[in-house]
Amino acid sequence: MKLSILDLSPISTGKTSREALQESMELARIGENLGYTRYWVTEHHDLEGLASSAPEILLAYIGANTNRIRIGSGAVLLPHYKPYKIAETFNMLATLFPGRIDLGVGRAPGGSAEVTMALSDNFLEQVRKMPESLSDLLNFLYQTFPEDNKFSKVSAAPVPDVMPVPWLLGTSIKSARLAAEYGIPYAFGQFMSDKEGASIIKEYKDAFMGGKQRLNPETIITVSVICAKTTEEAEELALSSDLWSVLRAKGEAAKGIPSIKEAKEYVFSEEEQEKVKKGREKVIIGNPTEVKEKLQKIQEHSQADEIMITTVTHRFEDRAASYDLIAKSFLK
Fold first, then answer.
1. Helix (H, G, I), strand (E, B) or coil at 289
2. Domains, the chain, ranges and CATH?
3. What is the pLDDT of residue 20?
4. What are the backbone dihedrals phi and psi of residue 206, each rounded to the nearest 5 degrees, phi first?
5. What does pTM read for this prediction?
6. How many CB atoms lie within 10 A of CB 212?
7. What angle do CA 235, 236, 237 make, to 5 degrees?
8. Partners of residue 308 on adjacent β-strands
9. Which parts of 195-312 are beta strand (E)?
10. Containing H/E element for 45?
11. pLDDT tens-digit profile of 52-107?
12. How many CB atoms lie under 10 A from the CB of residue 148?
């Protein structure tokens, strides 16, 4: 089973954004050495506790400090941008790092309503035009505009020898159908969706059209995991993200991912305890044996080609150790 990493570039209390981004680069190095298939970084804007607002820049930094692992965006938020600029940017990355670049796109706003207005005009209208924008993006990447199109002679330079692989990311059947229609790989974000991933992935595969790109119906399912040597240690590590989710909902997470000590000292209300309980239903927490069994069940049930793992802990060392333990269970 293929395993990959989705990195949110979390900022822990007591650390800076620069340190968080440096840790992202270091985690990519670790993932490469452990045998993970790919390393994707997210796009978030003015979201407390997360550092990556420009994945294309972070990918250049990571690419320059790794050698083999595929790197990509999880995801560039297409409604905010012109497809041509995205095609140029990822063609540049693919030219610099041949055969290693994934261009994952999504339709989420990536931040608050105010952030959305600051980023782009008429966001909802751009979401409605997502199919058209995705079509334009693919045509710019593969230079497949019909001759009578105004962009038929426009090149998204530099044109790399090995094209970036486009992916559509989503959390609903709508995104799966769009990916199938355009014949591109699909990644389902189970960790942030209440919907059942197996049925959505099945519909994607059943509806896959292939299209001009002739890509395979490749699928990823992304899950949240915290792994430690013992179940008790993993449960303790999860306290940080428990409190972080509560503080984010209250607009009080400006200091970043809290420590375990901070989480233990915090007095959760009954409503917050219920929120934490519900949130943990979407997280796999346990020792290597438990985590492996749960990931295998997810893969068997969903029939996804690959599982992508996202992990948030206060200490970078614990995050790296979690990926290390999982890799040693699966990959070596």
1. helix
2. 2-230+283-330 (3.20.20.30)
3. 98
4. -65, -35
5. 0.96
6. 11
7. 95
8. 4, 222
9. 219-227, 283-286, 306-310
10. none
11. 999 999 999 999 999 999 999 999 999 999 999 999 999 999 999 999 999 999 99
12. 6
